[in-house]
């Protein structure tokens, strides 16, 4: 029996994701002995500081990557939206399994439209903040850190009037009842990779690459990889107000990308479709750059 050690953060959601991947692996090969190994990352420790000030979402992956390099574990499981689009050559990443609901969730109110003027909306995402404020300048989007449970507790204590969280995380934790409104992807374009799980492993580990490849679903992986190619081509990262969403059509793929200033006062939006995901990503990125994306990215 082959032992597979899976690295994960210790939050309730991260553990759910790692166990889910472990279950998928076991279903594919009942000879695998799966062990979950929890780590506390720098991002977990520095929860009172804005992510953009301390290194972005890469802080959630660095400790797990160190464990991979030291061969303490065989693979690591992340939320794909937390994985930088430009990955170190030491690692490979595979989209694992089906994608959950890609939408953002409004929690604490039944509709975005009924939020009173001056409402304090908690969100740690510049992408969400810029898109929401562009829709309603009377809202105050306030940074919030912590895991899902911590954020919900802050809402219940009255520190915020509403929260914006990922539907995928709430659904996975059995907290779908907390969702007041699932925001349409045209209203709030999701982050690249949102709702998808990533399996990361050392380049050159052909044994692990084969196991990880068994988790890939082509239509899901192609859409996610297309989104990440746009981010990579723009030279952007997770701190930027950039939404990218790709979905499969009967023939080919449809891709929406939106890039905003932090205040939402300027917005570049592109929608295109094509048969090939790579060509589509390149076309959308080039169109954004021609519209002035470099200026917006450099000024964030």
TrEMBL record:
Ranges where the Porphobilinogen deaminase N-terminal domain occurs: 4-208
Keyword Transferase: yes
Cofactor(s) this protein cannot do without: dipyrromethane
Chaperone among keywords: no
Span of domain Porphobilinogen deaminase C-terminal: 222-289
Stretch forming the signal peptide: none
Listed transmembrane segments: none
Swiss-Prot/TrEMBL GO biological process terms: heme biosynthetic process
GO CC, alphabetical: cytoplasm
Listed GO MF terms: hydroxymethylbilane synthase activity
EC numbers, comma separated: 2.5.1.61
Record keywords: Porphyrin biosynthesis, Transferase
InterPro entries: HemC, Porphobilin_deaminase_N, Porphobilinogen_deaminase_C, Porphobilinogen_deaminase_C_sf
HAMAP family: Porphobil_deam
Family: Belongs to the HMBS family.
Protein name (database record): hydroxymethylbilane synthase
Organism of derivation: marine metagenome
């Amino acid at each position: 029996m082959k032992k597979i050690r899976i690295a994960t953060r210790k939050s309730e959601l991260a553990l759910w994701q790692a166990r889910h991947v472990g279950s998928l692996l076991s279903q594919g090969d009942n000879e695998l002995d799966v062990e979950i190994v929890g780590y506390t990352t720098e991002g977990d420790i520095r929860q009172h500081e804005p992510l953009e000030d301390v290194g972005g979402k890469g802080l959630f992956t660095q400790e797990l990557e160190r464990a991979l390099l030291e061969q303490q574990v065989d693979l690591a499981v992340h939320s794909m939206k937390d994985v930088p689009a430009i990955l170190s050559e030491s690692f490979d990443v595979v989209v694992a399994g089906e994608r959950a609901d890609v939408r953002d969730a409004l929690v604490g109110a039944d509709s975005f439209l009924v939020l009173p003027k001056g409402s304090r909306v908690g969100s740690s995402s510049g992408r969400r903040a810029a898109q929401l404020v562009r829709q309603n300048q009377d809202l105050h989007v306030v940074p919030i850190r912590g895991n899902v449970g911590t954020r919900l507790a802050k809402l219940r204590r009255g520190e915020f009037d509403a929260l914006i969280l990922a539907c995928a995380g709430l659904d996975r934790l059995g907290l779908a009842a907390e969702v007041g409104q699932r925001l349409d992807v045209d209203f709030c374009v999701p982050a690249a990779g949102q709702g998808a799980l990533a399996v990361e492993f050392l380049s050159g580990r052909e044994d692990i690459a084969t196991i990880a490849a068994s988790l890939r679903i082509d239509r899901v992986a192609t859409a996610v990889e297309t989104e990440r190619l746009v981010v990579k081509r723009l030279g952007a990262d997770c701190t930027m107000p950039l939404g990218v969403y790709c979905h499969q059509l009967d023939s080919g793929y449809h891709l929406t990308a939106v890039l905003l200033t932090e205040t939402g006062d300027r917005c570049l939006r592109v929608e295109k479709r094509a048969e090939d995901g790579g060509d589509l990503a390149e076309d959308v990125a080039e169109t954004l750059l021609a519209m002035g994306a470099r200026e917006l990215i450099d000024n964030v």
